[in-house]
Design brief:
Elements: E1 2-4, E2 10-11, E3 27-28, H1 86-97, H2 101-112, H3 116-161, H4 175-182
Antiparallel strand pairs: 1-2, 1-3
Helix pairs in contact: 1-2, 1-3, 2-3
Length: about 190
């Protein structure tokens, strides 16, 4: 970077005219600023350089070599990484669908299966079974309360409609008996 001799503006290197005043080529390098005489800088004593070492080839950390399979080759059969077939997944799902025995098999496979694919599948199914049971219990409590409320309204409505002749109908278990008591034609 240079400075214009006419106006003192900075002019980038390689430019033939000043960008401020437009004068041609009259650029020069700035003069160095003298340091005041009263400022003295302390110089550090020279330090001896350490002895030079002979140049050696850089040493890199060697990583252990693990046996690798060919890119398209499946892992060996019977190993812990063996691939499960589609039929094995379907058969395992059918086994897990059996109410008590399947749930125990799912728990055992989730904890102790040697094949990692089978173990992870069993863990996923175990989570699915646990969530299903939690939802079933929650829905039974929810709809149990709703059913009791609906049953109370029905009893009140039927009791009012029959003039109090029918007040209890046993939770709608015997619907035909209810229709007989109400005197519905065709019964």
């Amino acid at each position: 970077m240079a400075f214009c001799t006419e106006c003192g503006a900075s002019v980038p290197d390689g430019v033939k005219f000043c960008v401020e005043c437009g004068k041609p080529a009259g650029v020069s390098r700035p003069e160095p600023v003298p340091v005041p005489a009263q400022v003295e800088y302390a110089r550090a004593a020279p330090v001896a350089a350490p002895p030079a070492r002979p140049a050696a080839a850089p040493q890199y950390q060697q990583f252990p070599q693990y046996p690798a399979h060919a890119e398209d080759a499946p892992p060996p059969l019977g190993g812990k990484y063996a691939v499960m077939s589609t039929g094995a997944y379907i058969g395992t799902m059918i086994l897990f669908a059996i109410p008590v025995i399947g749930w125990l098999a799912c728990l055992i496979m989730a904890l102790a299966a040697k094949n990692r694919n089978r173990r992870h599948f069993a863990r996923a199914m175990l989570v699915f079974l646990i969530l299903g049971m939690v939802f079933a219990v929650a829905l039974s409590f929810l709809f149990g309360g709703v059913w009791e409320t609906v049953q109370g309204y029905l009893q009140k409505y039927i009791g009012d409609a029959t003039g109090g002749a029918v007040t209890d109908f046993g939770g709608l278990n015997n619907l035909s008996d209810l229709f007989k008591r109400l005197g519905t034609p065709g019964q």
